[in-house]
Amino acid sequence: MELISPSDLAKEKVQTVQDYVLFCVHALANLFRKPLYFYDMVQQADAIGVGSLPIVVLTGFFTGAVLALQASNTLERFGSITLVGQLVSTSMVRELGPVLTSLMVAGRNSSGMASELGSMVVTEQIDAMRALGTDPMKKLVTPRVVATVFMLFFLAIISDLVGLVGGLAIAKLLLRLDARQYWSNAWQTLVFQDVFMGLIKPVIFGFIIATVGCFYGMNARGGTQGVGRATTQAMVAASVLILAMDLIITRFLMATLSYR
Amino acid sequence: MCTPTVPVESAGAGTTQDSSPAIVFENVVMGFGGNPVLREVSFHLPRGETKAIFGVAGSGKSLILKLALGLIRPDSGRIIVLGQDITQMPEDELFKLRGKIGMVFQESALFDSLSVRENVAYRLTEEHGVYDDEIDRRVREALRFVELEHTLDLDPAELSGGMRRRVAIARAIITHPELLLYDSPTGGLDPVTSNTIIELIMKQRDVYKTSALLVTHRLQDAFTLATHEFDQKSNRMVPLPAGKQCQVPLSFLILRDGKITFDGDLHELAHTQDEYIKEYIS
User: Fold this and answer.
1) How do the domains of chain B map onto residue ranges?
2) Model confidence over A59-102: pLDDT tens digits?
3) Would you say domain B8-21+45-72+177-281 falls under CATH 3.40.50.300?
4) Residue B99 near chain A (CB below 8 Å)
5) How many domains are there within chain A?
6) Which among B276, B279, B278, B221 has a CA at the least distance from the CA of B250?
7) Which end of chain A is less packed: N or C, by CB atoms within 10 Å?
8) pLDDT tens-digit profile of A122-151?
9) Domain for residue A220, yes or no?
């Protein structure tokens, strides 16, 4: 294998970041240019949103359930086991709902987008599209970005709700807590900041999932091997970016929303 | 092979009276990763003419087509297509210009998620404003031209290599473009199917008078184009008498080491003294 010098490697990475930023700007700018390909957006929303629903529901349920189980162990020591609902609620809505939903959707769709677009690149279908007078960014990338952002928002809400139900199942069946008390605690503990944080994250993560997947797909080179590489890179990059952005967003919102 | 009749009134529908060349390359230089592929390449394609481009693998033949379509930009030099300088043309303007150009890709490049009908109709559906009835009529007309009307509802994966190539031609000609670019349209096909494709290219040249660049490895394809013409009455290609062969609007361009080593007609090619070309065509 050919060794690459550190300076060349650094240049390559900076170049990739620059290309990605330009790619994102282009994808967003297309929202204000005709044609908008509304039908493609709906089609993608169905594939990304409805298609991801089963894994999001399962992930949400089991996360909420295990959270309740883990929390009960600690809370019991302080005689505060009735606060399980509170803990599950804030953890799911603020953090685990959006993040785990995004990671699951990234695993399913970021890689899917990279492989689909990558295959189109290596079989010259993207060139053919340009030759036929269609901008692939408008036709393929922007609808995927809009659909992912839109659908991830609702998927995260569903995940939060199902997570609370998972927590309830554990609270009721294993911890023998009162269901009404659990819901009341879970509901009343939430404040505007929690909900806002929980809803803004999926919007940003959805943008990351779609743009990273499309970026790696559109830049796939080297035949089927290249498509495979792009698929893996897209999933890894999207997942890492989601977790890194989660930290930044959380810190930023805590500071700006005068969090308690 | 016998092909269906082309409506006379539609002949030449895509051509204009403009006498400027369809394509002009002026000192075009292009390379990848520091390796030059094209060095100071200059040629022009007059309107209504077909130019066959030859060269060994990696000599930059397909690159010329992609440059002519504006899919990639040259490192230096100037490219004029249908009277417009595309060297620094913004992508949005290029999309409009590409509406007048049809391209047949090496591996057909059909959209595998769309049916044959949707592939051929792609350009019309993207134009927005063309009625469904009109789209259907023109799709059938284009597929009839390539004798594949029966494949309308099939997926590209269900077609053979030759059929895919013919569908790609139908997709390229549906809007009667002023310029056609063929990238190895007969590559990897059997002789009978290759002949069918060449006859379609000839029909497009002689009936619609479309300017074309044809990249090919097969010398016999270009010689067939040079020695035959499409006869609309019998609806098939017929051999030309010996004295009329140079009157066919066909020229040859041979690339060697990134440069043009020959650019001329059949007569000039047959009488060249260049040893490389003699060996190439022998």
Assistant:
1) 8-21+45-72+177-281, 114-175
2) 999 999 999 999 998 888 888 888 899 999 999 999 999 999 99
3) yes
4) yes
5) 1
6) B221
7) N
8) 999 999 999 998 999 999 999 999 999 999
9) yes
Q: Is B72 on the interface with A (CB under 8 A)?
A: no
Residues 6+ apart with CB under 8 A from A244: none
A131 and B99: CB-CB below 8 Å?
no
> What is the β-pairing status of strands B84-85 and B35-45?
unpaired
Residue of B nearest to A132 (CA): B123
A109: in domain? yes
A129 touching B (Cβ < 8 Å): yes
In a domain, A8, yes or no: no
At B105, list the tokens: 């890709």
Write the residue in B95, B107, B126 that is nearest to A123 by C-beta: B107
Residues 32-61 of A with CB under 8 A from B: 35
Question: Is the CB of B98 less than 8 angstroms away from the CB of A130?
Answer: yes
User: CA A207 → CA A42, A98, A150, B123, distances in Å?
Assistant: 16, 13, 9, 30
Chain center to CA of A126: 26
How far is C-alpha A161 from the chain's CA centre? 17
Q: CA neighbours within 13 Å on the CB side: how many for A51?
A: 15
Alpha-carbon span A189 to A117, nearest angstrom? 44
| ipTM of model | 0.83
- Phi and psi at residue A90, to the nearest 5°: -65, -40
Domain that holds residue A44: 36-256
Query: Three-class SS of residue A92?
Result: helix
**Counting beta carbons within 10 angstroms of the beta carbon of residue B144, is it exposed (0 to 12), middle (13 to 18) or buried (19 or more)?**
middle
